[in-house]
Amino acid sequence: MDDIKIKASNDGEVLLAIHGSSTKGIDFLYPHVVPGGGVNGAMFGTGVYLTGTGSISTAKRYAGNEGSIYIAELDISNFITVAESEYLTPEQGIKLAGIVNELEPELKIRMATDLGGREFHAFVDLDEAELFYDEQKEQLKEIGRENGFTPISRCGVRVERNTADGKYVVSTARFELPLDWVSTLPNIADTDDISRSMNLFSNSFSTEVWSSLGNGLIIHPDGKSSMPTYLSFYSVPVKAELNANLDSEQIYSWCVDNVVNKKEDVQVEASYQEINYDKDISKLNSLFFVGKNGYISTDRYDKNIDDDLAEIYIEPRPKQKFYIDKISGSHDKVENILRTFAQNFPCLLNYSVRFDNNPPVTVGEMLANFDNNTIKEPNVVTLYHGTSTDYVGSIAVGGIMPRSDSGVSAHYYNERTGESLVDRVYLGDINSMGVVRAAALSAANATGGEPIILEVKLPISELETYGLPDEDSRKSTWKESLDTMGTLAFSSRVLPDYVDVAPKTLFNDSMSSLRYSVAEITFEDAKFDQKMAAGVVSEELSANDADIHKSESVVRVKI
């Protein structure tokens, strides 16, 4: 089976591409960092990893038997081939030199030397050669002292073999990369060398550089004779979704019959606003305004902004940050805002998103969270509550109670409003983990237990009846409070059926595996005992079965 090209002309080259994922129901493939794991296309940068139709087995391996195979049309006309003996164009070389020459000294010297090769200086007189050698060594040491690094060996000063005409040759690292290096220097790096050099620093750096030169990469890890893989730095619309349990020949035949021959769109492409911005967002601080209609502009008074909703402040240095002001991560416009910026500026995928003072997650991680939650329970809002492991057993039985019912004293205080109100339970969304974790730490410090996060899935009907705004939000409804601050209050007991221990990998990662298992089993056993006492559990379950249930729990703790 060969790769299927849909269009190959002066207008560009488009091929039918395949992506495998264990997640179902995706309409749009986008570059993102996977929480708790690696990144898409980790060796070359963060992007959407795809294969051609000639390598369907690779996509199937990523999808697994229960996942999906996604079909997409991929325009590779502005992709860069990464392989031995493949070189950048002079125009791409000028762009790359501009990036390299603005790096910190250590990185600049190393990259300039890797890409352009060492500089060679010939001398007839030995004394002159020795003087130059000493001067270069001292200059390199001085740069290192000023900038806090020790020059690596391959960037040092060397005495090379004497040339045939009797000259003495001293080679040095490059302190800068000439703009015309691609067309003028004799021993330049090919794209494979460039990729290896950038990957020595960081994935985000590699992503930033490659995405400034092209829309994606055509990767030949085993030489140009091997089937390529593709890495798109931009989002890719899905044309069709197939079950991964189909074999490769069935998938290939489907592509030919339903896409190539019929050339029909199976799904509607997602579209995002094109942001007109003439500055380099990866180098300069940037401010954007978002209207209630979702329109994004650098002009607060843009006629397309119907009413001011939020402000976006992007700070590339010293740390890459993406601030969203005036709304929380729960607002229904946040996903579209992030996807729009990711589509227009792929370099932002590794930027940290901040809501108020909550812990940051990257743009890519937030988009991954949206993707993982595409199959949502209808009419249910998922929230989180921080507490102590000392309360886990009682919460499993009686739910989360306001302090007026539980009699527990306040553990968490707010500097502005003081002690929290006694007649309500406070909950936060996934992007308010700073507040939720602070509450958990306060409760644990007061009781001597461990801080733990509980997951609460509340029906909207319950929120409509008992939901209140967090008083710190200064809003009038629970929905406004959740949209702007990411927290709300609940004026009744949260029933135990709505509560569970939140996953360790995402929210309770500070706990040891053993302590987390103990808390989880304490919660499960308390619920089980309550159901036994109430006769909810089937009468066929004997007391002996209950003992087995608990003994299995103990075994899990030991593991």
Give me a quick take on this structure.
The chain is α+β, with helices and mostly antiparallel strands and about 550 residues long. It has 4 domains: about 5-85 and about 210-260, ADP-ribosylation fold (Alpha-Beta Barrel), CATH 3.20.170; about 90-190, no CATH class; about 285-370, no CATH class; about 380-550, Alpha-Beta Barrel (ADP-ribosylation fold), CATH 3.20.170. It is built from 17 helices and 27 strands.
Tell me what you see in this structure.
By secondary structure, the protein is α+β, with helices and mostly antiparallel strands. The protein has 4 domains: 5-83 and 211-261, ADP-ribosylation fold (Alpha-Beta Barrel); 90-189, no CATH class; 286-372, no CATH class; 380-549, ADP-ribosylation fold, CATH 3.20.170.30. It has 17 helices and 27 strands. Strands 1, 2, 4, 5, 6, 10, 11 and 13 form an 8-stranded mixed beta sheet that branches. Strands 15-14-16-17-18-19 form a 6-stranded mixed beta sheet. Helix 9 packs across helix 10, helix 11 (392-398) packs parallel to helix 16 and helix 16 (513-534) packs antiparallel against helix 17 (543-558). The longest helix is centred in the first third of the chain and has 22 residues, at 126-147. Residues 34-41, 264-270 and 538-559 have low confidence and may be disordered.
